[in-house]
Sequence to fold (287 residues):
Amino acid sequence: MTQLIEKILNKHFGNNIKLFSAKPVSGGCINNAFALATSKGNFFLKTNSAAHYPHMFEKEKLGLKLIADTHTIAVPEVLFTDILESHQYILMQYIERGYPAKNFWQNFAESLYALHNNTSDRYGLFQDNYIGSLTQCNYPKSNWIEFFIQYRLLPQIKSAQEKGYIENKLMDKFEKLFFKLNDILWIDQPSLLHGDLWSGNFMIKNDGNVCLIDPAVYYGHREAELAFTTLFGGFDQKFYEVYHSLANLPVGYQERYEIYNLYPLLVHLNLFGLGYLNSIKNILNLF
Fold:
């Protein structure tokens, strides 16, 4: 892998760049990731198979740029994306980690609220992308509930059915829920979302503020994003207090969060197996 890394660096910086170290970074399930120390500075590199996950890093670059262009919340700067010897890669700014500032969670909530205030006339995006290693359909649609059912829930349900995880009885519960969504969900403007926002997809920079990583960007309902943050440990309570005070969400958001979390739970079911099925069943039993 060292030879590949050196070839990547030489391709973009010339033969005079020196690689001092390439330390593997854990945390991802599909990529090889490295913190690089070089004579041109420090960088962060991710690689994987171009054949297995076509255009993944190009789509990640676009998602990071869409967020960066709002000037609301920090993301790493992307330097290069390309393919070399069947490996696709993304070379980025290296983010120095730090400790949370005194008002970290308040600042995080205010920045995310500002991001969500970047809106579109349709839900989705002008191209598909990935959530984890799974493709995510973003075909633009003017109806949020139809978008959520057709391009978020149903593709994951179909994949889970093919794996034998979801049987007819459970599918009946999904279909019953679909008929109720018009009475449960409320409609908001399509907001620019990070799309995969949980505690593993943000970092604390050395200035004490947040930096978002690994996006699955699209224009969707802000409550879908907030719901996602409550999974896998959730965020600090201060974050929710500040965001809710700014957004003034209608009553019943806790119930709606349960519905929106069916999507990431289905994604995790398809990625990691049956350990997530009971959580899905428990949500469906609420409705």
User: Anything to note?
Assistant: The first strand starts at residue 19 and ends at 24. The first helix runs from residue 2 to 13. The chain is about 40% helix and 20% strand.
